[in-house]
Every structure is written in C-alpha cells, then in structure tokens.
Amino acid sequence: MASPLPRWPLVLITEKTHDVAIDMMYARPDNFTGHVIYRHAECFLHPQAEAGLRKAVAAARSFGFRLKIFDAYRSQQAHETLWAVMPDARYVADPVKGSNHTRGVAIDLTLLNSAGQELDMGTPVDTMTPASHHFYAALPAAMLVNRMYLLTIMLEAGFVHHPNEWWHYQLPDAHDFPLISSETFETCLATST
C-alpha cells in the first residue's frame, strides 16, 4: 500500500541532479496530438517513483546506458487532452479512472547508448499500435533485445511495465496512490523555480 503524500508530493527531476536526459514530449508540438500540451518542460515524480528512478539510473549505467525521460507527472487537464485525441484505454488511461502519470508514479522513457543515441526500440514513443506492445514478436531480434534491456533495468529498480507501451513503467501499486491535483502541482512547480 502506498504511503501518504508528503507535504510536497512531487520531486523535480533534472538532468544534473539525476544524470538522465530529459525531453518532455508534450511540451513540444511534435507529439501524437500535434499540439503543445504542457506549458512547461519540467519533469516531476512522486518521491517513491523518484527513488526507483535513481535505482534505474544506476542499473542503466551498469549496462553502459543512460535513461532518457519523455514524460512523468501529467496533470489531469493534460491527460484529458490526450484522451480527447486518443480515447483508447489500451494506450491512454480513461481519465475517469485517472492516469498513473497523474499520480506521479509512472514514467515514459528509453535508453541512450554511450554516444548519446537512442536505442532502436522498433517504434517511436507513443506509436500506439500493436508494434509498440512490449513483446511484439514481429520485430527484429536486436530491437527486442533493446526492449529487454529497458525492461530488466526498470524491473530491477522496482517498476512494472505496461504491456502495450514499451516505454511506459510505473510503480507496482500505482493505483493505491492518490491523484495529484493541478493546484498541488502548480505549487510544486512554483517552489522548484
């Protein structure tokens, strides 16, 4: 069971503090919606997910990789915008039930090699087709191996995978965490700058 929220329920993740690359895809228009969804490019996670991220960073480093984050905390309003474009619960959680991103305990990410290039995972992030399913067998073996590297790293760090999205990981008890309101997030955002 999830512990209660601390006073500030989100931790700012930065490239400097966490040794990750960050490219918040919904802060740019070149995402599956075709629009800028976030007015900021900051990356936040619940403290328990942030602790897992630190373990994942160390595990990735042991393989010679670095993590690249595309999305983490997502406000309810932003999630509803995604649902309006893609109302398919296989890929976007029904906003009535709430997204684990809105709980701050889900993260979308990939791996970078030692040259800083993304490993080929077979599809871009947010492809939202069967080819993006974690164990899609029709992909070349090298791409499946890359997905297995990411899976191994994230499982070792205490996360679980989403079967339909090779990039999505979350804490195992994600639904036990409360949704974090936009107002609470705005407070976290204001105190982090």
Features:
D-Ala-D-Ala dipeptidase activity; 16% strand; 5-stranded mixed beta sheet; two-stranded antiparallel sheet; Muramoyl-pentapeptide Carboxypeptidase, domain 2; 193 residues; single chain; alpha+beta
Named at the architecture level, the CATH assignment is: 2-Layer Sandwich
The class by helix and strand makeup works out as alpha+beta
Helix content: 25-40%
Low-pLDDT parts are: none
The main β sheet shows up as: 5 strands, mixed
Spatial order of the strands in the main sheet? 2-4-5-7-6
CATH C-level class: Alpha Beta
Q: What is the overall shape?
A: globular
Number of strands: 7
Radius of gyration: 16 Å
Q: Average pLDDT value?
A: 93
Number of helices: 5
**What is the helix/strand order?**
EHEEHEHEHEEH
- How far is the N terminus from the C terminus? 32 Å
Would you kindly provide a written description of the structure presented here, covering whatever features stand out?
- This protein is an alpha+beta fold and 193 residues long.
- It has one domain: 2-Layer Sandwich (Muramoyl-pentapeptide Carboxypeptidase, domain 2), CATH 3.30.1380.10.
- It has helices at 15-18, 47-62, 76-85, 141-156, 182-192; strands at 11-13, 21-22, 43-45, 66-71, 106-112, 160-162, 165-170.
- The strands form two sheets. A five-stranded mixed sheet has the order 2-4-5-7-6.
- A hairpin with a 2-residue loop joins strand 6 (160-162) and strand 7.
- Helix 2 packs across helix 4.
- The longest helix has 16 residues, at 47-62.
- The termini are far apart.
- The mean pLDDT is 93.
- Belongs to the peptidase M15D family.
- Its EC number is 3.4.13.22.
- Catalyzes hydrolysis of the D-alanyl-D-alanine dipeptide.
